[in-house]
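Structure ticket #2291
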Amino acid sequence: MQSTLGERLKILRHNNNMTQEEVSKYLNVQRQSYSHYENDKRMPSLDILIRLTKLYSISLTSLLDAAASYEEEVNNVHLIPLNQTEAGIICDYRALSPVHQNDVLDYLAFKKFVSGRKE
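Resolution: structure written out below.
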C-alpha cells in the first residue's frame, strides 16, 4: 500500500531527528500549518514542497512518490502513435541536460499529484 504525502513527510522528519517546530521554522510557516501537511489536511504549495526537498536532500519525484505509479503505468502501456506535438516534446526533453530533465520530471510528478488529489 502506497503511503500518503503526509505519512512520508512525518517519516522524513523523524528520520532526520527533527520536530514539527524545527521544520515549520525552516519552511517559515506556522507549526499548525505544517501539522496539517503531515496529517493530509492540507496540500503544501509547490514552493513548500521544493523547500522540503532541499531540507531532506531528495527529489520532488521521490517526495511525491511518483516512481511507483510511473512504473505501474509503464507496465500497463499500450503503444499509441505520437502526434507531432508529443514527438516534439520528446525531442525537446532529450535535448535537455540530465539536471533539466529531472526538473521536467519533478514538475510533471507535481502536476500529476495535484490533479490526482482533485478527483
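Closing remark: The domain at 5-117 is CATH 1.10.260.40 (434 Repressor (Amino-terminal Domain)).
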